[in-house]
Design brief:
Blueprint lengths: L3 H21 L4 H12 L11 H21 L2 H6 L1 H25 L4 H12 L3 H10 L6 H27 L5 H36 L3 H21 L4 H13 L4 H26 L2 H6 L1 H25 L4 H11 L4 H12 L5 H32 L1 H18 L6 E4 L3 H12 L4 E5 L2 H9 L4 E3 L5 H6 L7 E4 L4 H14 L5 E5 L5 H6 L4 E4 H16 L4 H26 L2 H11 L2
Helix pairs in contact: 1-2, 2-12, 3-11, 3-12, 5-6, 5-8, 5-14, 6-8, 6-16, 7-8, 8-9, 8-15, 8-16, 9-10, 10-11, 14-15, 14-17, 15-17, 16-17, 24-25
Length: about 575
């Protein structure tokens, strides 16, 4: 067994290797940490001892996670989304807990353990789902909004559940224990919010005036650990105190800076927490009870998914939205591990129940990215409502594009798309813009703009927008996978059509140029040039010289990028290009 510095070195080495592999495979880092724990835990290689000190240190990962949740907590956000958050989210958590408790009853599990197990199973993975939705630009879609509402309620529900589970350990005094804990929490919350907010604002004002990053960081750590200690001292959980500390900071102007400063501590310590969770998994016991692992997995993916499908449909969503929302939430979550660990620590569940539950939860999280992606494709392919909406959308796009030719197709009507459209209008060049934000499209149509709802990376949408008659196409959003789809469609139908693509930086320049982009505009570089120009003008450098310097740098930089692209081309492609240039 490794101890001390050797154990730290083993953990860091394993973390570096496994997290790197997870990033290459585009999987969440927490899965890598869980795999490390399984491999080096006391039930496998035995390198990580199951000591109280290790578990205590791992608890700080949860503390910093709850502090981050508190930073994102906003009463105004809750009011805007209250029906979906408390309606759909509340129903999902409550029904999941009751259904699990009922099923556990048939497995001879006491109702206290069944209720606590249901609380763990009710949670879904914010880390996995939010990342996947952001990558697919689905956060603000109908299913994305419902999914994030349910996840938000789950995050809020963790706080009372952290109070409930320890109280379940002594049912003879359940009412008194739970009532006392809730009263203490309410009084502490009222006291902290009444006195802590103004004091904290003034204190951090003083700290910020010192202009010391070190001092600012020390105060953030002091607040996090101090609030955790305060709540633990009053007989409550450390996580509740961290959550309250985050709430206090969220009401100040320092929220975003604190969030950036705390992230490294949160991620590293949370990684240690997930390693200890993985170390709890005894693969021998899991194999002996593999049928229970399969039952847990089926309950999370199929049972929880079916429950969410029914609840989302009942809330008024169409079949496609309900199907995708259910698939996006049909897995276990980070807080599920927290609650299950707490349940096991208070003896509410036996190891024979905890082990298959851990394994089933872990497998459901591993399968989540594949289930979500598959559900996205199936929902769009087989839903009658989706086909009807797509047909109606295509008809609207075609109607707006009818009668115009030699026009520009603007893919995306955010700030960049609107800026491009203004220049086109000024030069009296006709255009049609496509955007997936229904509210934005409605506002643009009300203002008289030729903007329609449509997904620009779909062949039928681009054809309806007049791709065969267009003079140019502009991709105004920095989504490389979507831009590559657009370029593939254009290359197959109109290979001579110039396509201008916006990119965040020049990392994907060669790939986009190779796919057929006439020009790729890296916004980071253009932004730096404008910043330099404004700086020089404020220093009284003549405008003509500023413009000359900027244009010189721009030409040199773009020439360098083009040279990099040419160097990346195969030799045969270079010969073909040179032969085409010759008369």
């Amino acid at each position: 067994m490794f101890e001390g510095l050797r154990l730290v070195l083993v953990l860091l080495t394993a973390a570096v290797m496994m997290v790197a592999l997870a990033k290459v495979a585009r999987l969440p880092s927490l899965l890598a940490y869980l795999a490390i724990g399984i491999a080096i835990g006391p039930h496998a290689m035995g390198w990580l001892p199951a000591s109280e000190q290790t578990s205590r240190l791992a608890e700080f990962g949860v503390v910093f996670l709850m502090f981050s949740i508190g930073l994102e907590f906003s009463l105004s956000r809750l009011m805007v989304m209250r029906w979906q958050v408390f309606g759909l989210g509340g129903a999902q958590v409550a029904v999941s807990m009751l259904a699990t408790m009922a099923i556990a009853h048939f497995g001879q599990i006491p109702w206290q353990g069944g209720l606590a197990l249901g609380a763990a199973f009710a949670m879904s993975s914010t880390a996995i789902v939010a990342k996947l939705l952001a990558e697919k630009l689905d956060l603000h879609s109908a299913s994305g909004r419902r999914t994030m509402s349910v996840l938000l309620f789950q995050d809020i529900a963790v706080v009372p559940l952290l109070i409930l589970i320890p109280a379940l350990a002594d049912t003879s005094r359940l009412g008194a224990t739970l009532g006392t804990a809730l009263l203490q929490s309410a009084l502490l919350l009222a006291l902290v919010m009444a006195l802590g907010r103004p004091v904290l604002q003034r204190w951090f004002d003083l700290v910020a005036r010192r202009k010391s990053t070190e001092l600012f960081m020390l105060n953030v750590l002091w607040l996090t650990v101090g609030m955790a200690y305060l709540t633990e001292h009053f007989g409550l959980s450390m996580s509740l105190g961290a959550f309250l500390g985050g709430m206090l900071i969220s009401e100040t102007v320092y929220r975003h800076q604190v969030e950036a400063d705390i992230r490294p501590f949160r991620d590293v310590l949370l990684g240690l927490f997930f390693i200890t969770i993985g170390a709890m998994l005894d693969l021998a016991v899991v194999w002996q009870r593999i049928e229970w692992v399969a039952l847990v997995l089926a309950g999370l993916v199929l049972g929880k998914g079916l429950l969410l499908l029914i609840l989302t449909r009942a809330s008024g969503a169409d079949a496609t939205v309900a199907f995708r929302t259910a698939a996006q939430l049909a897995q276990a979550g980070e807080f599920g591990f927290v609650l299950l660990t707490l349940t096991a620590a208070h003896g509410l569940l036996t190891p024979e129940v905890v082990q298959p539950s851990l394994a089933g939860m872990l497998i459901s999280m591993l399968a989540a990215p594949f289930i979500i992606e598959r559900a996205r494709a199936l929902g769009e392919r087989f839903s009658r409502d989706e086909w009807m909406k797509r047909a109606a959308s295509l008809q609207e796009v075609a109607a707006h594009a009818m009668g115009i030719g030699e026009h520009a197709i603007v893919c995306g009507y955010g700030r960049t798309g609107q800026s491009v459209a203004r220049f086109l209008s000024k030069e009296k060049i006709p255009f049609i813009a496509l955007d997936m934000d229904a509210h934005r499209v409605q506002q643009a149509v009300s203002a008289g703009e030729n903007v329609v709802f449509g997904n620009a990376d779909r062949r039928e949408v681009l054809l309806a927008a007049g791709l065969e008659r267009a003079r140019i196409l502009v991709v105004t959003y920095p989504d490389v996978p979507s831009a590559l789809k657009v370029l593939g469609i254009v290359r197959s139908r109109r290979p001579e059509l110039p396509v201008i693509v916006r990119a965040t930086d020049d990392a994907h320049l060669e790939e986009l140029k190779r796919a057929g982009a006439a020009e790729v505009v890296p916004e980071v570089m253009e932004g730096s040039l404008m910043l330099a120009a404004q700086t020089l003008m404020r220093l009284d450098v003549p405008l003509r010289r500023v413009l000359h310097d900027v244009e010189e740098v721009r030409e040199r930089r773009y020439d360098l990028l083009r040279e990099r692209y040419r160097d990346a081309e195969p030799e045969g492609a270079e010969r073909a290009a040179s032969s085409e240039e010759q008369p």
